[in-house]
Amino acid sequence: MKEIKKELLKKILDVLDYRIAIVNQNMIIHYANKNFIDEYGQDKVIGKKCYEIIYNKKSHCSGSSDVTCPLAKSISTGKHIRVIHKLNEEKDVLIEVYPLGQGFYGLILTEPTGYHHLINKIRSAEEKFKVILDTATDAILSIDSNHKIILFNNAAERIFGYKKEEIIGKDLNILIPSYYGDHAVYVKRLLETRKPKIIGKTLTFNAKKKDGSEIPVELSLSYTELNGEITFTAIIRDISEQKQMKRKLLQSERLAAVGKAVAHVAHEIKNPLMIIGGFSQQIKKHISDEKSRKKIDMILDEVSRLERLIANLGDFTKEYRLIKRPSDINSVINDVLKMMKEIYPKDKYRFVAHLSPEIGEIMCDPDKLKQVFINIITNAIQAMENGGTVTVTTQNLTDGVEITIEDEGKGMSEEELLHIFEPFYTTRDSGSGLGLAISYRIIEAHKGEIKAISEPGKGTKFIIRLPLV
Ligand SMILES: Nc1ncnc2c1ncn2[C@@H]1O[C@H](COP(=O)(O)OP(=O)(O)OP(=O)(O)O)[C@@H](O)[C@H]1O
Ligand SMILES: [Mg+2]
Fold first, then answer.
1. To test ligand 1's pocket by mutation, which of 373, 420, 432, 442 has the most ligand atoms within 8 angstroms of CB?
2. Which of 17, 216, 292, 434 is such that its CA lies 20 to 30 A from the CA of 3?
3. Separation of alpha carbons 305 and 408, rounded Å
4. CATH superfamily for domain 2-120
5. What is the distance in A from the centroid of ligand 2 to the CA of 240?
6. If you take atom 11 of ligand 1, which residue's CA is the nearest one?
7. What's the CATH fold of domain 136-238?
8. What is the CATH number of domain 243-317?
9. Is 303 exposed, middle or buried (0-12, 13-18, 19+ CB in 10 A)?
10. Residue-wise over 225-242: b if at least 16 C-beta within 10 A, else e?
11. Nearest atom, ligand 1, residue 376 CA
């Protein structure tokens, strides 16, 4: 029976209008039907390589630049492959390759019809579209009229943290923070009014990632209608970095402008202040009335407070010309901590240092950096009214060093964090609000970075990164 079945199969294959062959993974022909043999010659076919027979070539098709070998592609992907190859100026051939298992592949060759050509064009357009979609650096996503996500490219996976498989078919609201309301309502309204005001414009807002965090994005929207089915497609760009750069630039510009104005005012005040102080001292000597002497003392106190403020301002407005030399950050920190331990009561404040012995010397201005560490640690102490621990850590980075200074103080709100590096921003009665502004400028002059992480009631951590040179 088995033999009969085999014979029947052979007969069927022979009467078919297709050229059919079975090849192995070395591209050697093991079987060919009648049509195939009639086309390519009785004795030549079996045991020969398919490309020798079909194309009269010495190597397989992927060896030449303009065509891909469907058999090689099927071998590498394990999938059914269909291509149309040009045999010569007038003749095309449609080739389909089917993996049959056990290292064998079925080749079916036929003359392509208009229909085949069309399908082929659509397929290759689709393939091109897919490549463009997945190599784009912006996220591209589409939703249908039911607000369900129907397209999600590679960049979207990267930006939002979702895999295609887990997000296709989900409601778009999954990517929109809840405070914007139900986005589906807008889409519904858009569909009803058919007046898509936002189409073609660029919008900025926040998007929600898989981990719940939010990122600022820029979005442009388009819509297409095909056979009554509407699709909205958005191109989305992650602008977090851009926004951060802008903020930094603005901060530097603002600091520079304020610095100039302050330098001018400080200069103008210095001389009158010296006169007020000097004359007050002289007048005091000639006054015997106790009440008046006390008033003069108050004038003198205030004058010296103003003089201290102006000295501080001088620090802030100075162009930071660094005197860089190879220095050991750990020993700068140890010096500062030693000083702090002397100043602040031991039973109230503890200073802990985790200093990596691996960090060597870096090119920096150790005196200016000392000022930065003193400013930050002083703030930390002031934030811990009931005492606590300040922990200083150093570690190596691939291209620099990182210093963190952590306290257990009252912490800061998000709003406060936005302003702490601005000059004159202070929440303390006796503060001038210059400590961190000066520190920021010193670190900026080193081409380093400084930032703070904090939450109310949870302490504050300052992170400083400095380059090696
Ligand atoms: N470790 C910290 N914990 C809580 N708040 C802090 C901390 N460091 C800074 N701040 C906040 O940042 C503000 C600005 O700090 P900055 O050092 O620039 O000025 P200041 O300490 O107020 O005054 P100055 O340092 O000029 O005497 C502080 O007033 C405080 O509100
Ligand atoms: Mg301070």
1. 420
2. 17
3. 30
4. PAS domain (3.30.450.20)
5. 29
6. 420
7. Beta-Lactamase (3.30.450)
8. 1.10.287
9. middle
10. eeeeebebebbbbbbeee
11. 8
Q: Is 305 helix (H, G, I), strand (E, B) or coil?
A: helix
Shortest-distance ligand to the CA of residue 456: 1
Q: Which of 362, 359, 354 is nearest to 448 (CA)?
A: 362
Atom 13 in ligand 1: residue holding the nearest Cα: 426
The tokens 């000295």 sit on which residue?
Answer: 311
What whole-number distance in Å separates Cα of residue 380 and Cα of residue 47? 84
| Lowest mean pLDDT, pick from 16-25, 77-86, 217-226, 309-318 | 309-318
Using pLDDT thresholds of 50, 70 and 90, give the confidence band for residue 63: low
Output the CA 309–ligand 2 centroid distance in Å.
Answer: 13
pLDDT, residue 67, reads: 65
Name the DSSP letter for residue 239: -
Q: How do residues 353-372 score in pLDDT, each as one tens digit?
A: 999 999 989 999 998 999 89
- Distance from the alpha carbon of residue 434 to the mean position of ligand 2, in angstroms: 7
DSSP 49: B
Strand-pairing partners, residue 366, are none
Q: How many CB atoms lie within 10 A of CB 134?
A: 14
SS3 assignment, position 435: helix
Of the listed ligands, the closest to the CA of 438 is 1
**Does the pLDDT value for residue 466 go beyond 90?**
yes
Backbone angles phi, psi at 230, to 5 degrees: -100, 135
Which residues have CB under 6 Å of ligand 1? 375, 379-380, 383, 407, 409-412, 416, 420, 425-428, 431-437, 460
Cβ atoms of residues 102 and 90 within 8 Å: no
Topology, domain 325-467? Heat Shock Protein 90 (3.30.565)
Q: Is 371 exposed, middle or buried (0-12, 13-18, 19+ CB in 10 A)?
A: middle
List CB contacts of 107: < 8 A, sequence separation 6 or more: 19, 20, 21, 22, 23, 50, 71, 95, 96, 97
CA 311 to centroid of ligand 2, rounded, Å: 15
C-alpha angle 61/64/67, rounded to 5°? 60
Largest CA distance in the chain: 137
